Structure prediction request, 700 residues.
Amino acid sequence: MPVFQAYKRVIKKSIPQLLIYIIVFVTFAAILMSSGAPASTVRFDDARARIAFMDEADSSILTEGLKNYLLQYADFVDVKHDQASLQDALFFDEVDYILRIPAGFTEGFLEGKPVGLEKISLPNSVSSVYLDININKYMNMARFYLANIPGIIQQELVDLVSRDLSVETAVEVRPTAVNADAGETLSIFYNYMSYVLLNLLILGVGTFMLVFNQRDLRRRTLCSPVPLRQQNMQILLGNLIYAVVCWIIMMALGFVLYGKAMPAKQTILVALNTFVFTFVCLSISFLIGSALSSRNALSAVTNVLSLGMCFTSGAFVPQYLIGEQVLAFARILPTYWYVKYNNEIINMANITWDLLKPRLGYLGMQMGIAVAVLAVALVIIKQKRQAQEA
Amino acid sequence: MVIKVENLVKRYGDLIAVDHLSLEVRKGEIFGLLGPNGSGKTTLINCILALLKYDKGNISVFGKPMAPDAYDIKKDIGVIMQNVAVFNELTVYENIDYFCGLYVRDKGERKKLVEEAIDFVGLNDFRSFYPKKLSGGLLRRLNIACGIAHKPKLIILDEPTVAVDPQSRNNILEGIVRLNRQGATIVYTSHYMEEVEQICSRIMIIDKGRIIAAGTKEELKSMIKVGEIVFVESVELNQTLLDAIRQLPNTSLVDYKNHNLTVTFTKGRNNLMNLIDLLRKKNLGYGSVYSKLPTLNDVFLEFTGRQLRD
Prediction:
């Protein structure tokens, strides 16, 4: 297979040039990993707040029950009950939360009157919000029993509420989806891969096509006893093997760098998308290699096409930051569907067939574009051949 | 007959590149196709190689009709194109191996043939060089090695010495003669008449796609009136003396410029002696005197009224 052998040799000579793209990509991925990828979160811990508890109702059974309940979630801090001391405690971060039970609260509550607890908390404090939830939970539960058991006494009410609130359900956190931050990193990585694949394919396939289609070289090869069909088959074989090798290298890099950050199902689906996109790149490269006749033109077209396609499709900048008109144009580009598929699959919490089905359409769009580009390339080749024979 | 072309016509729009041309190339000969640039030589070669479609005529090679899919014919043809057709990305060795590989599948045999070809064109010291590092002459030799490595029975060389230094040119011409001695039939196109005259056993002169003349070089020269051209340098002549020279037997053309005299004689005996006798009788002093036999350029000039390199 002399044409295939020549293909291998020409590609081998282009390896240094091709390596530049891979090295830049790996460097980019390493930077991305060190700066943006957090360790995946699989633990949950209660937040404990520091609370100043002021019971102006002189400790009823109900408020004591509330205090005991809150002990599970907060540390009680002694603070003087005057206004200035309380403000200082909050300002100097000695407490997160001040809870005041006004005089007559218990009586009013038991009689079903609209009474309220007073609270002061640090703004934007997560633990304060958490305490709010727990206090509301306690009081709502107490109100529920009070409304449904007529004549219930305080001790019984507190016992029932405490019993109910002590019931816990064990929750296991499983990483069934990619966490949001890692998802963004993975999206950036796989979307940027489209740029690298485009360049690798256009430069590799385009270079050989350009070399082999030089008029004199082509004519000289046509003088040989190797049938034209066989020559084309050998070129096709070379192109396919080269494309698959590029895909394997890219996927191996993805696996080495981010193998554990994404569940297997999503990895397979993203790999499928990358595989389809590799063949889109192959058909684009075939077209460029068939249409162009100079190396300088090939470099220029490679840069313009790969950068243009990736920028407008959201491979470098997230699609939600790109204008509607640009995205409307990008819909005719395979990179748009590639990026859209990646973003949606990587950030999907749970993959079901119903969710997956529309995304497979994105792969279909890419394949459609690949076939259209290939058809144009074949027409150009035919016209060129006819012009040479005329 | 190795090649037979009958009544070939090839048009590019209104331009007739090959005009009802017929030729025969016999086994074992070096057939020269001589003509100025644009005379239709390369078009004719491309038609013979089935690289171009033609409008009319028949072409057969090794007795079989030539066609783009005549692979059994193509395996015995070696082609050296006018423009160097090699991969700049491959070394000298890899290039020859590629072209040889188009004809010879067996790796061991191919290796032997590639080595022989490298040796034949004298590129042993350059086998790992890339074509861009080679001089024009070495590049032409590589082009030839790529065309002959598979030891073809018929070798077609289309102007293989264009833009080549004299040393490389001699090397190439000697190589072609050696290939012919080894049994290959050669078709050699050129617009350099000296080359064609030096190596070709039969010559066809073409212009504007038509045959001007064909035959051995002696046969071609015998077709024209010019028998001899005599040059006399540093001689003082007046109109009376020039008229006297014009009266000499067989004189066809007298040209006198810058004290240098050129007299063209038709075929005949003692032309040079008659001229020198006349100059002596008139007591005229002169510098060097020499005589030249007609060349293929004179043949072309007489048939077309133009120089070969016009």
